[in-house]
């Protein structure tokens, strides 16, 4: 037990709390209280101090570490990260697309690699919130439906509540989704709540949801969750994904393909 009434031990306790949040990304107040064996009032007071120092951000019922939170790179930079892995993942995803299907591509960098493979597929309908994907397919290839919404410049995507005006009116056979991070405990996350909102709608409505994510995204937690793994049918990733995932995900109904 870490004593809570000793002023001398308070910095030690807060440092322990900070480390727990940094490792887990997010945590509930009740879980932190139980692990540190102190009162809820003490946890909340410590979180308030850590928030003032910029180490955490308090949210309803818990807190998010600002130190473990992923910073989102500019879109052009994201496409250069793990480019070989993303290309193989995109090629595997392409092999799953049947003639005359309607598919969705979100604004992930790996889904852009897939968009580039679709330039000769005039038999498809592509629904997307990605300006970059629409540009790739502007001259030839599938019928393209670009959803409206608020422009998020860093990801070059249309996001937020206005996207529901189109998404509520269409059905796609397969949704190919990228993500900023994924983990067994916190699901799929991204840095922006508006982007999470649009991703969540698609994950709820698509006939099949296919996650395209290289293994570097594993155990990464961002601010806004848009789906649990129970909404995902298939994960396509690279061969560096840990055994923990390749064994655990099939048990909850998620198929895993490594390429």
Notable characteristics:
3-stranded antiparallel beta sheet; alpha/beta; 22% strand; 10 helices; 2 domains; Rossmann fold
Coarse structural class: alpha/beta
What fraction strand?
15-25%
Strand order of the largest sheet: 6-5-4-9-12-14-15
How would you name the oligomeric state of the polypeptide chains in this document? single chain
Computed Rg: 20 Å
Number of strands: 15
| Helicity, as a percent range | 25-40%
State the CATH class of the largest domain: Alpha Beta
Shape: elongated
Low-confidence parts:
none
Q: Determine the N-to-C terminus distance.
A: 46 Å
Number of domains: 2
CATH topology title of the largest domain: Rossmann fold
Order of helices and strands: HEHHEEHHEHEHEEEHEEEHEEEHE
What is the tally of helical segments?
Answer: 10
Largest sheet: 7 strands, parallel
Please, what is the average pLDDT?
89
**In CATH terms, what is the architecture of the largest domain?**
3-Layer(aba) Sandwich
């Amino acid at each position: 037990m870490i004593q809570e009434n000793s002023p001398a031990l308070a910095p030690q306790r807060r440092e322990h709390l900070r480390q727990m949040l940094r490792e887990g990304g997010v945590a509930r107040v009740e879980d932190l209280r139980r692990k540190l064996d102190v009162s809820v009032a003490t946890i909340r007071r410590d979180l308030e101090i850590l928030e003032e120092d910029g180490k955490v951000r308090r949210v309803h019922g818990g807190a998010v570490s600002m130190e473990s939170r992923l910073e989102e790179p500019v879109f052009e930079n994201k496409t250069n990260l793990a480019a070989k892995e993303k290309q193989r993942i995109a090629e595997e995803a392409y092999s799953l697309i049947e003639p005359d299907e309607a598919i969705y591509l979100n604004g992930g960098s790996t889904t852009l690699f897939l968009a580039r493979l679709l330039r000769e597929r005039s038999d498809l309908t592509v629904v997307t919130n990605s300006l970059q994907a629409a540009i790739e397919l502007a001259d030839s290839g599938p019928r393209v439906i670009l959803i409206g919404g608020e422009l998020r410049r860093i990801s070059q995507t249309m996001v937020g509540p206005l996207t529901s005006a189109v998404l509520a009116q269409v059905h796609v056979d397969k949704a190919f989704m990228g993500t900023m991070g994924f983990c067994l405990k916190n699901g799929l996350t991204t840095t922006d709540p508006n982007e999470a909102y649009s991703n969540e709608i698609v994950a709820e409505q698509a006939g099949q949801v296919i996650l395209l994510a290289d293994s570097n995204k594993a155990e990464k937690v961002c601010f806004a969750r848009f789906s649990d793994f129970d909404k995902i049918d298939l994960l396509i990733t690279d061969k560096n994904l840990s055994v923990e995932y390749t064994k655990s995900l099939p048990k909850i109904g998620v198929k895993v393909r490594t390429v």
